[in-house]
Amino acid sequence: IATKYLKDYQATSYLVDTIDLKFEIKDTFVIVTSKTKYQQNGASNSLELAGSAELKSVIIDGNELTDYKLADDKLSLNNLSANFTLEIVTHVDAFNNKSCMGLYASNGNLFTQCEPEGFRKITYYLDRPDVMAKFTTTIIGDKDLYPVLLSNGNKISEKTLANNQIEVIWEDPYKKPSYLFALVAGKFAFIDDTFTTKSGRKVKLEVYSEAESINQCQHCLESLKRAMEWDEKRFNLEYDLDVYMIVASGDFNMGAMENKGLNIFNTKYVLAETKTATDTDFINVEAVVGHEYFHNWTGNRVTCRDWFQLSLKEGLTVFRDQEFTADLHSRTVKRIQDVKNLRQMQFTEDASPLSHPVRPESYMEINNFYTMTVYEKGAEVVRMYQTILDKEGFNRGLALYFERHDGYAVTCEDFCKAMADANKIDLSQFMLWYSQSGTPHLAISDHYNEATKEYSITFKQSIPNNPTAKAMLIPVSIGLILDNGKNIIPDIKNHNTIVRDNEVILLLNEAENTFIFGGISEKPTPSILRGFSAPVIINYAYDEKQLYTLARHDNDSFNRWEALQSIYKTEINRIYHSESPDKFEINQNITKIISELLNDATIDPALKALSINLPAFAELSISYPNTDVKKLVGSIKRLKSAIANGLETQLLAVYKDNQTVSYDFNDAGKRALKNTLLGYLMQGNNTGKSIELVAAQYKNADNMTDKIGALSAINDIDSPVRHQLLDNFAQEYANYPLVMDKWFSLQSQSQLPDTIDNVANLLNHPSFDKENPNKLYSLVRAFTANPIYFNTDAGYNFIAEEIIRIDSFNPGVAGRIANGFSSIANYESKYQTLVKPQLQKIMAKENLSRDVYEIISKTLQ
Ligand code: B3K
Ligand code: ZN
Fold this sequence. Notes:
metallopeptidase activity, Neutral Protease, domain 2, metal-binding, binds zinc ion, globular, Immunoglobulin-like, 40% helix, protease
């Protein structure tokens, strides 16, 4: 299997002006005719087109070609003129396509997914992002089976043909790469609205889904309007077509896809209604709707030159959706959630054999690079530009980026250069964030000079699993806090610092940097990396008193949360290394500060919930070389139950205080807190009483958040009530696939000893579908995050067998599940011994996909 390298990039020998596509939907397949106008670009008169559909005919300027060369999914054409029209006919086996890539059927409706390389499954083309063309799409199908026929751009004609056929023609006035092409055909209901842009253009907004779920689409439509308005206000970016369509599909490999004017979404990110969606689902739908909408500028108008630059559009667009959620809801809550996610998923990726830079330099299968690193670390990289340049400077850079590159396919250098030029600064060192893999660590030491009243702090940067890494430009936001809790804005003596409003940002740029602050009356406690100003791991030997000072008095709310996390991490570490973790007596200061926090009326409940949430296994495991999985899980649990027992009365009281009367989304914080507390209470000794609470909450719940909260709390408890509630839930929601996904996930995550058998049996549950990506993610992939039961012989075997099964029809999903094996590299060697034969078994599968081959071969290394 070949590896592709960034350094080998070359422009194509021909470019495309226009492409006219015709789709004739037949009973068992689709006839696709593409008519493309090519134009020479350079000296070569040969052309290689990517394609894997059944090729029926090749016509160049009206003459049928018979001696074409077709091999390895490539059509080679030679001795071409400088300009020519190529007409290609293919038959696409859409109805048997279970890969959810290219043109495929889902519940009788047809959808496309072309990013990154799905278009080649439809026709033969220069299927790469730097080839941009104007698309016209004609769709012909049976009026009863396919009353709705959609594609990108504006509908320019619709007519009825003979034999109950209809023909619809769409024209997209904007040049685009093939990955943004989309087609939808089938039976759908829709809801609509209009949005008037700031320059006064009226845009039609339409959300399509199957008729039975159309009543769950309103939140999606409202979210779209909020996104459009926000992007105008925050970034001065306006929508550019007359219509914006979102279509929901129950079979989708990812979250959603930003096809020009015609987004196709996983139902998971469209459907949301109180009875079936949790508060988190509501926020996620809004965020993904925003994300895909924001791509219209950051991705579609300005796209990527090649797939190595994927983070150019994804990192930037994730940053934009994070800001959207932060502006509309709580900024601190959003930041904490994003950082938790980054630590649990991206830091672990970076500590695994699959570690790669934000801009990878090579790949076997690009589908494997829609990763946490490209997306989430990529977003942190974009955030750092804003931290360094401030909002105004960042917006200037973004405006220059669009001014220079609108309508083009560009690189990460182009983005960096726009930021640098618009602000007249040199950002060349910053480019290392795109090329160096691994999470930077900062070893920090400090010194207070009583005589001079100077405080100095020294940072040594390094990337442990990337020893040749060069020193990067790292913005470290910092504050100093005195023993009495006073936050001071220090008088800084160095040049490479930014002081703005109440913020001091140190710009680290060497292997070792020291900063000196003057006029400090006593040895302060440093509040380092405020707001998580860079995606790094900091190592500073805080003593207990300092951590409590920060947790109580830091005026950076993120770092108050962070200090509590450090307190928990320290304690978990002590439990982990103690003689008998089960009997470990925890530090009473922890229960004391939690008690204080819960009593503090000035803190919003969502933040309280996050503050008492312990760090997750995945986040902690990377800091335990050769992790003893069971011991670490047990240590976290020990701390949780000790807190539950120490504070039982108060937890119960706060639980009761945070009950909500009738459902209002604005009470989401209270529900988050209440459900977190219920989870705690269930870990305490008073199990009988807690089970009653769970049962009552479940019974009285008027919303999905509280039902799932109850089920999660009891999910690890071996009690008949757990079974009753799960059964009841399955009956009530049998006809709601997305709700059943939650039910499968819960069981897959359970810490009860029958989990492996149960998960294997659930594959045959009537609500399960062995070919549906959402189902596979909620049961099979979710199981790879079950530390105790995945990391067993039977667990590894189960996942290996599933990967082999799924790989034959959906390599994309199989690859994503295969990712689950990569974290084992950090665990005790006995786990590696156990998993090796399973990985070898996967490698031995005939016709193993590139997707799985790449992941497993790298994991085995
Ligand atoms: N751009 C799409 C990615 C689809 C890739 C599928 N293998 C989703 C998004 O980031 O918006
Ligand atoms: Zn995206």
